[in-house]
Specification:
mainly beta, 14-stranded antiparallel beta sheet, 2 helices, globular, disordered N terminus
Length: 268
């Protein structure tokens, strides 16, 4: 009886830690998951298995869906479901000359032992003003050309990779402020199990049984951070129209979470 009571706070702390990691995973999961031939978009549905490791293991699922709304307007939606928390995140955007123009962004996280978290952003490109609310606190931001939202910048990232760019920088409006986000392709010939940032398929390899026939050649990208030991990597498969096959984030304390491709359906 007393032993069970002593273990309860530890269990709650474990669930809260996992919930925090899931929140971060949901923000990272993004729009880098879809595939599209440059410069056009097309509908798709991609699903992933999600896992979190921080003292306790947490398994869940994630889904990203892109649908055309007509007149070059698109709906991009992500859903993350797990025992700890559920996320519903969506973006309505316009696609103009190979660029994402965000119009309406919504985010809602809810779950066990965590407070609901919500964010909304509405973009008015006629007045160049964005209005929104984060955790019930309203904000107003003056817009400049090219500013993106937490989902739209990752759509743009993937499109730029498809167009051959290898270093990307974006201005992203999130939580009432605009930050610069940088990404770089670090290997055009990586292995899905490579965590070092190096090319697994190059150099000497004495084991001839582990060659290209069993391992796909992937493009690997990294989020560039300054003064941070957090690491974020993404693997894309050129043979699957650059669908994201894996995403991994490693925290400074050694905990990690990742996505692995489960199924992909590409539209016309």
């Amino acid at each position: 009886m007393h032993s069970a009571q002593r273990n309860t706070p530890s269990l709650k702390r474990g669930r809260l830690n996992a919930a925090r990691l899931l929140c971060a995973l949901a923000l990272l999961l993004g729009s880098v998951v879809h595939a599209e031939p440059a410069p056009d978009l097309f509908p798709f549905e991609v699903s992933y298995d999600a896992s979190v490791e921080k003292g306790i293991s947490l398994n869940g699922s994630a889904k990203r869906i892109l649908t055309a709304q007509g007149n070059n307007v698109w709906l991009y939606r992500t859903e993350v479901k797990s025992f700890i928390a559920d996320l519903d995140e969506s973006l309505i955007f316009s696609w103009k000359d190979g660029q994402v123009v965000p119009l309406r962004y919504r985010y809602h996280l809810s779950g066990l032992l965590i407070k609901d978290r919500k964010q909304s952003i509405d973009f008015n490109w006629e007045t160049d003003v964005a209005t929104g609310k984060y955790r019930e606190k309203p904000f107003t931001i003056e817009l400049s050309k090219g500013i993106l939202d937490p989902l739209g910048f990752q759509v743009q990232l993937h499109q730029d990779i498809l167009n051959g760019k290898r270093d990307m920088e974006y201005e992203v409006l999130d939580r009432g402020k605009v930050d610069t986000q940088r990404y770089a392709v670090i290997s055009d010939n990586a292995d899905v199990s490579d965590n070092s940032g190096n090319n697994d398929n190059s150099g000497n390899n004495d084991n001839s049984d582990n060659n290209d026939s069993s391992q796909p050649t992937l493009l690997k990208a990294e989020k560039i951070r300054e003064n941070s030991r957090r690491e974020t990597y993404m693997w894309f498969d050129p043979d699957k129209d650059y669908v994201l096959v894996r995403l991994q984030q490693i925290e400074p304390d050694g905990s990690a979470y990742e996505l692995k491709l489960k199924d992909v359906k590409l539209g016309d």
